[in-house]
Write a structure and sequence with these properties.
With about 475 residues, this protein is of the alpha+beta class. The chain folds into four domains: about 1-165, no CATH class; about 175-265, Beta-Lactamase (2-Layer Sandwich); about 275-350; about 360-475, Heat Shock Protein 90. It is about 60% helix and about 15% strand. It contains 14 helices and eleven strands. Strands 2-1-6-5-4-3 form a six-stranded antiparallel sheet, with helices on both faces. Strands 7-8-9-11-10 form a five-stranded mixed sheet. Strand 10 (about 460) and strand 11 form a beta hairpin.
């Protein structure tokens, strides 16, 4: 190295700059090596030791360049070759390179030994004044090797599994993840969980047990957040309007117990739950209004019918009484036969003037009533031609529709009537809630069943997959 004194100052400065740059590149290569995952742990540490030895070798060469530049500036010619240190470092480097070459079954790690040979004290005696050229070539080789390793490691980090890639993948997840030991010591935590800690408590905890117990369970240090419990899971509503669900789970690995804490963003799901709750409240309110409307309609119909009957009864009875008083005034004493005939005609007159309504008109009235209270009424097919059967069908439709609205909260009632070679078939479906338990037949269903059985037909009720009332009257038997 003493031959450098014969060169110009800018050459010596260039040697120092190249040496410094080589140190930086080798240090970066060493750091990148720690992010690489190895299946063989002994190979991993052997390669790390090799990179450290190469860094020490480069540091010595750079220190030589700096030493010569400093003494040349001061006007001294002095050089401490550190021969023993250089030979000892070379032996360690040669041994380590050989081990790595054997382990990886590759020969290229051995070329660093050849490069290092040209920097040994014996090379100075052999090459003489040409030694600085080999010295510079060695620094260049070290630099190129470091750059190659850096690029290789960066490529491996992108396409292969590594500690850094695992951490980057976990940090990229939209959920908060934390792994800790039994005592609460955090092993791994991603960026999302750190942000959640800051949002909930205003600081980042170093102990998962303290964060879980003091903040999530006991709510000691929570800021402006509200907690809701869904079963065993905890949901926290932040001041930003987001909702986060936290779950804790124990993991058994190699006779060690670890804990996994996950915070999932359920804002969209929480908003949907709130919307569903509002809709349920509105539906419940509408249900109560519909029940009240049906009750009012029944009350009005009952009152109107009572008034009609009273008026008709008053007219018929008033007419008979007027005739009776007229006969008494004319001294016509009514006998037993006359009174009996009068009473018989009285009941006939009461029935004779009652308004009659066809089954078709009754069905239209039911449909209009349902439409008036907001229930969609769909009829597919036509009522039977026989008025008696059509009337029974209409009564069944009225009872089933009323039950669908009152008990099932239905918005649609679908009536399907079909006549084929087997007989008459009617299906009544609705869009309401299906009964959860066993159906208990009341007076309404019992009366419907009685009328259908009088026609030698059958009535069945199904609840799966939807509520359906099915009526069948076999052909040729319904008139029997």
């Amino acid at each position: 190295m003493i031959e450098l004194y014969h060169y110009a100052d800018w050459v010596r400065i260039l040697f120092c700059v190249v040496g410094f740059f080589c140190v930086v590149m080798q240090t970066a290569a060493l750091v990148y090596g720690f992010y690489h995952l190895y299946q063989d742990i002994y190979l991993r540490w052997t390669e790390h030791i090799l990179e450290v030895l190469i860094l020490l070798q480069i540091l010595i060469l750079a220190w030589f360049s700096a030493q010569i530049l400093e003494y040349a500036t001061l006007g001294f010619v002095f050089f401490d070759g550190k021969h023993l240190l250089r030979y000892g470092l070379f032996c360690l480097l040669a041994i380590t390179s050989t081990v790595v070459s054997i382990k990886r079954q590759l020969y290229y790690p051995l070329w660093i030994v050849l490069v290092t040979v040209f920097t040994l004290p014996v090379a100075e005696y052999i090459f003489g004044k040409a030694f600085p050229v080999f010295f510079a070539a060695a620094l260049l080789c070290y630099t190129l090797r470091s750059i190659h390793i850096i690029l290789l490691r960066k490529h491996e980090l992108k396409i292969t599994l590594s500690a850094n890639s695992i951490k980057m993948a976990i940090d990229a997840l939209p959920i908060g993840i934390l792994f800790s030991k039994k005592n609460g010591h955090i092993i791994l935590i991603n960026t999302c969980m750190k942000n959640l800690m800051m949002t909930l408590t205003g600081k980042i905890y170093r102990n998962a047990k303290n964060f879980y117990q003091d903040c999530l369970i006991n709510e000691k240090y929570l800021l402006t957040c509200k907690r809701h419990l869904i079963g065993e899971d905890m949901v926290y509503l932040t001041h930003e309007g987001s909702a986060w669900m936290f779950t804790k789970e124990a993991i058994q690995m190699k006779q060690q117990v670890y804990y996994q804490l996950i915070g999932a963003n359920i804002t969209e799901r929480w908003d949907m739950i709130s919307v569903l709750e509002d809709q349920n409240r509105k539906l419940q309110k509408q249900s109560e209004e519909l029940k009240q409307a049906i009750f009012n309609i029944q009350s009005i119909c009952y009152k109107e019918e009572s008034l009609r009957i009273k008026s008709h009864f008053h007219d018929v009875l008033g007419y008979r009484i007027a005739l009776l008083l007229r006969g008494l005034r004319e001294n016509k004493i009514p006998n037993e036969v006359m009174l009996a005939e009068w009473a018989k005609d009285f009941m006939a007159d009461l029935r004779k003037n009652e308004p009659t309504q066809s089954a078709k008109a009754h069905l239209d009235a039911i449909a209009q009533t349902m439409e008036n209270i907001g229930i969609a009424f769909h009829l597919k097919g036509q009522l039977p031609e026989e008025e008696a059967i059509a009337s029974i069908f209409t009564e069944i439709i009225l009872e089933a529709s009323t039950n669908a609205v009152r008990h099932g909260l239905a918005q649609d009632v679908i009536i399907e009537i079909e006549e084929n070679e087997t007989g008459l078939h009617m299906r009544i479906k609705n869009s309401g809630l299906t009964p959860k338990g066993e159906i208990v037949e009341g007076s309404g269903i019992s009366e419907m069943r009685r009328k259908i059985e009088m026609l030698k037909g059958s009535l069945a009720i199904f609840t799966e997959p939807e509520f359906e009332l099915y009526v069948c009257i076999p052909k040729g038997e319904r008139r029997g």
